[in-house]
Amino acid sequence: VVNSALSAWSTSRAGRLEPMVERIATTQYLAAAASVELEAIDDPDFRRLVDVAQYGPGSARRMIGACVAALNGLISLIATAGVLAVLHPVLLPMLILIAAPRGWGAMRVAQERYVSVMSWIEHVRASRLIGNLLTERSAAQEVRLHAVGAFLLSRYQRMAESAEAEQERLASSKALTEWVASALSGLAMAATYGAMFWLILAGHMSLAIAGTAVIAVRTGSASLGGLVMNINQLHEESLYVRDHGRFLTQAAQRTIPAGGNPVPEEIKEIVLDRVTYRYPDRDTAALDQVSLTLPMGSVTAVVGENGSGKSTLMKILSGMLLPQAGALRWGEADVTGLDRFQVFERVSLLTQDFQRWPVTAALNIRLGRPAHAATPQDLQPSVDYAGAGPVIAKLPDGLRSLLARMFRGAIELSGGEWQKVGLARTHWRSSTSQADSVLIVDEPTSALDPEAEIEAFDRIRRLAAPNRAVVLVTHRMSGVRHADRIYVLTHGRLAEHGTHDELIAARGRYAAMFDAQAAQYAPTASIPKPAAPTVADPA
After folding, report:
1. pTM of structure
2. Shortest CA distance to 536 belongs to which of 512, 513, 508, 514?
3. Per residue in 464-475, pLDDT tens?
4. Distance (Å, rounded) from C-alpha 181 to C-alpha 9?
5. Helix (H/G/I), strand (E/B), else coil: 131
6. What pLDDT is stored for residue 444 in this prediction?
7. Domains of the chain, with CATH numbers?
8. What is residue 135's predicted lDDT score, i.e. its pLDDT?
9. Which residues, in sequence order, are CB contacts of 395 under 8 Å at separation 6+?
10. SS (H, E, C) 421-480
């Protein structure tokens, strides 16, 4: 009765403790992943560690059950060992000898399985990616129309067969190891019975005691075998928990630092001074001694071909990446000495691949500044400013409609409609702060029709205010001609800058790009060959 009561109590406590431990470990994992520098997310080695560490919370949970089972086994083993020690002291080391091979075999199997999981982690991730592509809605059209489904399925089958071969190898290795361990354990058991037979012949043990010893040895062997298996499980799970801890340690080293000097209340301009940045896996700099100035109240455009460094410049301006050389200054303050989270509070960002949150339309807009409470009436000015009123009006529940096709009753917007929601989110973020700030817009009209594109550019330009600078990053030349200043990037360097009229008159790279796009709308005109870029002196 006492044993049953204690067993029920331990089961109840473990059932409460296990989900709590998993929740805490998972929260630590997610919080650490969400707080590291953007540079860490782009690091393949760190990404692999992120993948490996995801097994840690589940392992931490399973260790609770293994600990309880090991404790119960240890209590039973102590009782059995006490009996054997009373019957004859020589039987106790023989019991350990019986269980030792099983422990060795279990440890070897666990270690080999862990090494396999770590070696195949990227293979498993690639297999899951292919599986998701075959089932996700975003790829459904090309999967069917271009017969990509059969191609991906064949790749998945080959990868699955490789994984199957690895599992077969592990199973064969496990079978061999367990056979050797069982054989050695059997020999130890035979030696134990031989020792008892000798003790009987020598008169050191009676037949009654020997019968009791046989039962005790069998019971102790089973208890010790179970204890070894539980300890082995603890060892195996601890390997994954160790990876979880290693991730938390590295994430702490690469987390965005808290604290720093406050961002000045009034900022006349934001200045990039000879900024250089090179990604760890690249031989050439993404930005090479780039300088530009963003006065408050102005609209500044950054143009250039793909790979010219526009996106990297955007990340530098937003504070997500820090210059490796040169300086980014908010007023007179270098951003490296400022409180980064205060910098983030002063930045609004709208990109062409902005996040389409699987929540309601209202929350999609409010997430521009989630800490700021809002009613549908509070959000309406942002909806109107972005021209998203007709989009919201046609939704079955208006702003309360769920924008996530994977859920029943939800609505999926078109690309152009989503961009209007994104612009409303940007307006909401900008309108809820009166501090000097910067708005960075990266290719915001890629999914809009021509008329909507013209309206969107006009709305974005009107977001410039005495306390806000607007940066427009695009390759659509029609949207930048009214900018106060235009900077042209080529291969990570500043090629030229000026107003639209000045750059057209200079007949440099900007003029060539503008003429090339304009020629597409002229039926009889030929597209001019772009002039070779002339890189401006960074001084």
Report:
1. 0.75
2. 508
3. 888 889 998 887
4. 35
5. helix
6. 67
7. 2-106+179-253 (no CATH), 264-346+438-539 (3.40.50.300), 355-432 (3.40.50.300)
8. 79
9. 361, 401, 411
10. HHHHHHHHHHHCCCCCEEEEEECCCCCCCHHHHHHHHHHHHHCCECCEEEEEECCCHHHC
